[in-house]
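Q: Second attempt. The first request was missing the SMILES, so the protein and zinc ion are both included now.
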Amino acid sequence: MENAYLIHADNRHLLEKRMNRLQNKASKLGVPFEWEPLYTVSTVVETTSPATGRKIPKEYRQLAIYFKGEAPRLGGWEFAARVEHVRTDDGIENIMYTHPEFEGTIPEAYRNVSHGCDHCRKNIYRRDTYLVHKDGEYQQVGRTCLQDFLGNDPQALITYYQEFSRLLGWALEEGEYWRGKAEDVYYRDDVLKATSAIITKHHWVSGRDAYNNWDTISTKGRVVYYFTRPVEESARAAWKKWVAEIDAVEVANDEIEEAVEWARNIDADNDYLRNLRVLAKTSAWEFGHLGLGVSLLPAYRRHIGQELKRKEKAERKPRKPSEFVGTVGEREEFTITVERVVSCESRYGTTGLHIMVDQEGNALRWFNSGAEDMTEGKTYKIVGRVKKHEEYQDKKQTMLTRVKFEEVAA
Ligand SMILES: [Zn+2]
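A: Got both inputs this time. The predicted holo structure:
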């Protein structure tokens, strides 16, 4: 791969150090790696202060780099996936992490493969096995056999890959491709409870959104913080205070139970939902599961939202056509339901186009370039400036800017 990337550059000095360290590692491993800083991009965007709800201008600095690297093919083999063999309530099942650079399609049979190793053929439980690929052939190899099999130091390789993927923003929502040795345990129901409270207080922020708006903390990041008592005395008071605030949020335990029940019975053919199903069937999660795990609740809410939409569509009386609302140039209040939030990638990060409808069926639109999006299917009281009245495909719609919103309890 050879490309120019924009990466976070708050502290260019640190970044250069990291890149150089990676370069050293790569040369020790015999992996091609070249990089060069090009220029810094500065962008000012408006974000909403989580404390006051006020819009504040914020400067983002990104460093454009030229980068050339290659996934190592050791003895011609490339990494295709990590298969995690998880002990669930229904026995051992697999969570599959396809390597972000792998372009082939992993044969379906590996979805349910047992924790064997084609190299040593020893029949022992392995937490992880790796699928490697060469010319259409796949081999499943245990971690400790990787070195024998590939003729290289797998730990060094894994560490290298880990850092490399983080740097290029491959922090997958569904969980990281690589992971370390034994990890702390997080109980599923505790994680979901914390996630629910954190989403109520701070809205849902995906890992991707947090990466693109890097003064924003992802929901996963907040969940990790919730469970991590700071080592330093000085940081502990603030942590305790925040944890108490989160604990004070009322959480719908019914919803959590329903979400878990839904996830345990997902019948889907995409990796993300299948992985979610396996995870829902285990009650003790590890750090590496948190990305996937905190997405369970939003996934369930999306599912419920889609079900509702389907029902509504079937029952809906013919609506009167959408009319313009508000006065252009004025700041006005509306009560709306969010029909859809469409993520648009732009050079300013992620923009969420909000497709909304008020109670009279009038269409409203808002491009949110700040950090927090509203949630699909929910109803909000919003205040925003009417930017313009616009007709799009014969539908009258009201465009808003600078929207402040507050959820209306259902
Ligand atoms: Zn082996």
